[in-house]
Amino acid sequence: MQAPNANVPAPTLQKPQYKSYLLNNFRDIPQMSRLSEQQKFDIEVVGSVLPFKANNFVVEQLIDWDNIPNDPIFVLTFPQRDMLLPEHYDEIAALLKQGADKTIIREAANRIRMQLNPHPAGQIDHNVPVLNGERLHGMQHKYRQTVLFFPSQGQTCHAYCTFCFRWPQFVGMSDFKFASREIDLLIAYLREHPEVTDVLFTGGDPMIMSAKNLASYLEPLIQANLPNLRRIRIGTKALGYWPYKFVSDDDTEDLLDLFRKVSGSGLHLALMAHFNHPRELEPEVVREAIRRIRETGAEIRTQSPVLRHINDDPATWARMWNAQVDLGCIPYYMFVARDTGAQHYFSVPLERAWQIFREAYQQVSGLCRTVRGPSMSANPGKVQLLGVSEAKGEKIFTLRFLQGRDPDWVQRPFFAAYDDKATWLDDLKPAFGEEKFFFEEEMEQLFREKKGASTADDFE
Ligand SMILES: *Cc1c(COP(=O)(O)O)cnc(C)c1O
Ligand code: SF4
After folding, report:
1. What does the alpha-carbon distance between residue 299 and residue 278 come to, in Å, rounded to a whole number?
2. Where in the chain is the domain with CATH 3.20.20.70?
3. pTM beyond 0.70, yes or no
4. Domain 130-455 belongs to what topology?
5. Residue 228 Cα to ligand 2 middle (Å)
């Protein structure tokens, strides 16, 4: 072995302190000297409407500052001018230039936000479970086997993704409420619902919590010894945004011990890791974090949407799935970008998403083909585009449910008229001149039965 070169510090495995960058301090980032004043102003304009947060790991180790403004991780975390529609951009830019009052800027921003399909008041009501007549805020139960749980301390992230559909939560305009006696209510609900096998902790990012806070949720769940509960999943971007969480933070050992405890209790622990680009799998500290997590018995499953400007080509996906499998992670979902926020900037036509999936899938071995997609998490369920074909002389999309509000919908192929511009399920019409998709009648009935229901999308 070569002696370490004393002049070159090992940059990735030292123990850095987390430092976040927000609108009020991003200009202090040394690399900002590479941006024009216009680019920095654009960050301020767009960041006044959509959430912005980066951190020292993202800035120092993920972004390639020689590749600005096209670097995928730069686009993933730093607001770009075109993420706002021109009229919205111009309105905020004018106010900032005039030095307008903060409250005036906030009012304008809120008006614009309301036009970005933020799922406002009441619209996320319809998956809220009920126990003894009480609505369980901070939980959702849409698909039979899995309950989503939103721990109140886990509702922010180590950095924000510019494409995130949870953006209203991060700009403080979500009416989403979190439960007070959180974990006890979850356990009581699980006792009443023997069909539930999985609990999915989600956020924000639950891995923003200290080991101690996370333990205050996981330990009671283990101790409850529920006969139906088999798996605990944690949705997280921490491997991409703050891998030190699993390597060198002050409570890392406690966290890994907690993971061991879950696995040791006989429950399957799965981290549902969000990776949007293969670059995120390169730093040595990320690889070390993956090794340490897997060493506790936890599995890591991976998911991401297809995003224009970030990962909209097959080679990128093939590289990402290969790298994940090499590291012992299991590719799980490829999603379609949601119809909210800066969707106009990130979305690709459904047909293109399918082509990307198909071409990437063809390039990888069966061990990578655990992934499913492209999938839309829409109101009726998770809908996968299987492909473009032709029947009865008509060009059509073939789709199927991977998950459905009614489990009976799952795995039934159905058909939509081909549409080269469609980017979301709502854009599609049934093929062969039919009036409705097979599930629509039942959907409407489900929603008539539930007061206050809407047709908004869901949280996962
Ligand atoms: C995706 C999702 C789940 C989990 O579904 P799996 O297919 O089991 O991964 C659970 N609840 C909601 C609301 C979801 O969107
Ligand atoms: S919730 Fe996930 S996708 Fe959204 S900003 Fe946080 S890390 Fe990114």
Report:
1. 19
2. 130-455
3. yes
4. TIM Barrel (3.20.20)
5. 30
